[in-house]
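User: New here, please read:
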Amino acid sequence: MKILAVNGSPTKKKGMTDIALNLVLEGARKAGAETEYIYLADKDINYCIGCFSCWLKNQGSCVFKDDMPELLEKVKNADVLLLGTPLYVDGMTAQTKTFVDRIIPLVEPEFEMVDGHYRHAKRLENIPGIALLSVCGFYELDNFDGLVDHVKRICKNFRSDYIGALLKPYSYSFVMDDIFPEHVEEIKKAFVNAGHELAENKEFSVGTLEKAAELPFGPDDALVGANMFWEMCRDKKEFIYHKKQA
């Protein structure tokens, strides 16, 4: 099992997406998977310009000579593409969407009818399954609904298996181990277990997804805590860095 994890967060190692992805990959490696982890913000990836050269002229190759051809080869050779992104304005980050746009050479321009719906013909026999990992600052899990639906649709268009979505609302709870040590430990175990399940079964269990999304406080306490945090940030005139350095 080869798992390619991409982190689409512009904060890279500073963010909660990084914590979550590393935990999942830890579990996957323990289960025997081969893993690779890429920060998209470190890569030179141009926007797709809609020229269709990758379909009509270069047969799978983009006109841009950036880092994307190398990344596309990694996608082709993976069994699972683990798409990591924080929730930005109810969707994926610009870095993540740019990457996704540029993997369009995995399919052909011609259409086929699949389950009563137009889909692009497959260029590859085996396109990796796609799993979503996302974090956000909001409390409610339904904030991810638009993003999850988008990724499901991406999977249909790429003729890829949708593996599932590992979601963490109010994700700064990841670093609240000084206040909720037992809870944080259990949540981190859930993400490690999710990686184990991904490597062994190419899926996430419902129980693991529910445990990963749990929070140690109710919505009212979360609201008060979040606003206190932002008040401190306003006083300092900077975002207070939460992730603890190794």
